[in-house]
Write a structure and sequence with these properties.
By secondary structure, this protein is mainly alpha-helical. 65% of the residues lie in helices and 0% in strands. 16% of the residues are buried.
């Protein structure tokens, strides 16, 4: 009887360890390259205000707002996914999770929502777009009707 309980507990702990290792590998792959983590630390107060404003915006889809509230809850917890003594990822896990959630928010709600709620400088907003590997809202040029794009001549039919 006790052996069944011990085997079940060992299986549950083993499964949790495997899930944690998968999460650590995912965070290692998803972390921003180069000095972007340092840049994120510089704009951290603006990022927290941005996440709070976005989470309270009723015009955003419900799934986006739920994701942002879960992010705020995760950031408020004193427990980290990766302990701080782990090199490189120890202190960066919160920053990586914020970048992942902001990337999904930008892709779902659009860069205009981020720009509308951004409390910081335009350079800080550009840093957010670099960090999340997304681009700012841009207007694409309208294609010209008829005519050859290279020389402005009408197209020839074959």
């Amino acid at each position: 009887m006790w052996t069944d309980v011990l085997v079940a507990a060992a299986g549950a702990v083993g499964g949790l360890v495997v899930l944690w290792l998968i999460l650590v590998a995912f965070l290692a792959v998803a972390r921003p390259a180069g000095g972007l983590l340092g840049e994120m630390m510089r704009i951290l107060p603006d990022l927290l205000r941005l996440v709070t404003r976005l989470a309270r915006d009723p015009s955003l889809p419900r799934g986006v707002r739920v994701r942002l509230w879960l992010l705020l809850g995760y950031l408020a917890l004193p427990i980290d996914l990766i302990p701080d003594f782990v090199p490189v990822l120890g202190y960066a896990d919160d920053a990586i999770v914020v970048a992942i959630v902001l990337r999904s928010t930008i892709r779902r709600a659009g860069p205009d929502a981020i720009a509308r709620h951004w409390p910081g400088t335009p350079d800080g907003l550009a840093a957010v777009h670099r960090l999340t590997r997304t681009g700012p809202a841009q207007r694409l040029p309208r294609p010209r009707r008829g005519g050859d794009r290279r020389a402005g001549r009408p197209r020839r039919c074959p």
